[in-house]
Structures are given as structure tokens and as C-alpha cells.
Description:
Pfam families: Thy1 (PF02511). Helices cover about 45% and strands about 10% of the residues. It contains 18 helices and 7 strands. The model has no long low-confidence stretch (mean pLDDT about 85).
Amino acid sequence: MAKIYAVANVPPEVSAYGMAKYSRSSAPLSDTLREISQEKASNFLNTFYFSYGHASIADLAHIVLAIEDISMLAAMTLVDEPLWDGQERSTRYQNFLTAPYYRPRGASAEFDQFCSQLFAFYGELLQASLEALQIRYPRPEHMTSGTYQRTMQARALDIARYALPLATLTSVGQVTSARVLEQQISRLLTSEYPEVRDMAQEMKIAVTERAAFSLTESLGQPLAPTLIKYADANPYLADLTARLKTLANEIFRSPPTGPEISPVDLFMAADPITDGLAMAFYGTTALPFGWIRERLRDLSTSVRSELIDHLFQGRGAHDGWPKFFRTGTLIFDILMDIGAFRDFNRHRRVNKVVQPIDIHQEFAEPDMLQEFAVPINYHSWMEKYYRSLISGTMAPLDKPYLLPLAHRRRALFVMDPAQAAYIIELRSRSAGHFSYRQIAVKMHHSLQQVLPDLARHIRVTPFEEFDPFER
């Protein structure tokens, strides 16, 4: 009969060593773990992980990290990791009215003034929306007063979150393998934002130098003193990003013109070279994916070949291929408010290319404000706020922190049809936030146009099917 048992309270590096020894020993894991000390594990990992390059060993060490009191802007960057699991504080179930916010080093008093404006408007939206919802949806007889109040509060928070600044402090709990954590820290150390670099450095210290938190007996030692110690900023990634920005300015001099931009566009995969190059430039511009791809198709074969060389220039011995070549079947170019993006950003099995936050992408306006007759001139308030922010004298890297969650952001979501079906079925449900419900329904509509035989099997919830009491 099979012998199966769970393992707990074992330091990640010791666990990784024990797992790795399975291929070299017939002893049970329990016996192996009893024999291993942190010192033995460190010696083994230094030899096989760093010297011999057996990178998969680090996949056996899983680390739980709490990253608290970071801005929502930093959290978005943190979570943008394909092999990642975790949770962030929810804007749907927590009131952020009195939440603290991140203040960049050297920020002026003007920064605080903009934050105060957004938080005050957040409070006004929350109260006005709650009152309007209670008028529109009286409490059903079968629902208790407490449940009704919590449900209506959550729906009101769905609207109010549009005014939250990206500087708002949040917290993230994550679970990753040591290999993913090492790559994540390296990526974050390459960020242009000082806060993100500081966060990455603290993450490194937390697992290599600082004793870990334990519910039972304190481990008295860091979780991964060996596997993460060489995590550093990635010069290849930093140089590649700068090079792509320069090339984009040379190639895409004339911005696209035409009809109003659609919030969701679906693209079928072309050849890997065209799609790879288009994704590379998409991540450093504010241009629609389709327009970039058509422009690249007009280039000569020799120019395209030269562009590919640029993507690999400076690639180090331990750097993988640029993520732009992890092409999938379906490519969705989605323009959404950042509140919805934070929800979509948690999906794994999706290759994402996220554009930098562009202050000129402007803001989304929730249809619910008019539908529920919320007595606030949202559009006028936001327009005035944006005019003031754009003309403000803050440092360029401070301004993104002052954008509300209503701000729109472009991102490519590359996935196979099965993952698209999962996202559409999950995110279109009545219990979901109306913003991402609209995106999910539009994704389904796009699939109906190009893959009707597959789309008809997706159990999408029509947007008009809305139960305000479903959570």
C-alpha cells in the first residue's frame, strides 16, 4: 500500500535538499529530513544550485512572505509574476477611507494635497453610493439586516474604489518557490521606482538575514539564507527596457488615428517573430497592440532581424529568453481601469505584458453612477483633478502614485482558449465587480466573432443578469 504523509515545520532549504536527495537515495523523506541540518543544506545548495546549475532544486523550496504597508502601485509590480500565488487586501471588502499612503522621498506638500483630495472624494462616493443603492435595492424579507448592510457596503465600495490613489498602502501575502522569488527580487530591483527597489531589498533581507515568524517555536534563522543570497538587479533587463524605448521612438513616430478605441480587442496569434516583437514594444509604449503589429509587418526582413538581435543583446549566462516570446493562442489587448486590472492581474496561466502607467490614458467612469442615480458629478470632478495633476510640479515618478484606481491601463493577456473560458466564466458572474464583468463579457463577445464553436461552450453570465445580493 502507498505510504503518504504531509510534511510541516521544515525550513524551505532543508526541505529542498531532502526532496533533491530522492534522486540519489532510497531512504524515506522523513528519515532524510531528520539527518539534514541547515548547514548541510547550505553546503549542498551552494554546490548543486549555484556551482552545477541545477536550478530546479530551488523549485522545491517554497517560501511564504508577508509584504505589508506597500503602495498599490508597488503591489501591482510585485504580483506581476507568472508562477505566483497570493492575496492582496481587497478594496471590495475593506474601507480604505482612513488608510495611510506611501509618500515618495522628497515629495512636496503638493503630493499630500492631491492624496487628500482623492481620499475625500472616495468618502463622498462611498456614502452617496451606499444611500443610492439602499434606495434602489431595499432589503429582501429573507435577508438579515446585518447581511444586507454588508452586501450593500461591498457594492458601494465597488464604486468608491475608483477614487483611491495608487499611493494607498496595502498588504500582500505570497507563496512562491525560491527560484521564482529569486527572479522576482531581481526583476523588482531593476524597477525605476525607488519604493519598489526598497521593497525588493527588504524581501531579500527577510529571507536571507532575518529570523522567520513561526506560530509554534521560533525557527531562529532566516528561511533561505543560501538560495536567495545572489538575487540582484538584472542589468540585461534594465538595458533591454531602455533599448526598446529608444527603438520605439524611432519606429513608431506617427501615433494611430481613427475611430474611438475599443476597450477590448482580440488578436489571433501570428508568427512568433511578429508577435514577439510587437509584445516587446507594447510593454514600453502606450500604443494599441494591433497598430504596433501592423507597423512591424511593414518593416523589411533585414530590419526585423536586426530588432530581434537587439532583444538578445547583452543576455547573460543565467538570463532566460525575453518573455515576449512566450506566445500563446489568444492575445487580448485590454484597456481597463486599474481596479479591474488588479483583479485580472492575479490570474496565473496567463502571459502578461503590462504597459507603463501613462497619466494621459485618463480615467474610467462607472456606469453604475448614472444607473443608481448617485448624486455626484463624478466626471467633472475627475476632469478637474486630472488637469491639476498633469500640470502639477511633482517629480514624474511621483505622479503615478496620485492616479486613482479609476485610471485606465493597457495590458496584453495571452492565453489558451481553456484559460480564456475559465476567466470569462469566473469574472462574468453577478457576484463580481461590474468593471471586470464588463471586460469578461466583451472577451466572450470577441471570441464569438472568431471562434464561435468554442465560444458557445463558455458559460458566460450576461451582464444584464445582475443579482445585487449575490456575493
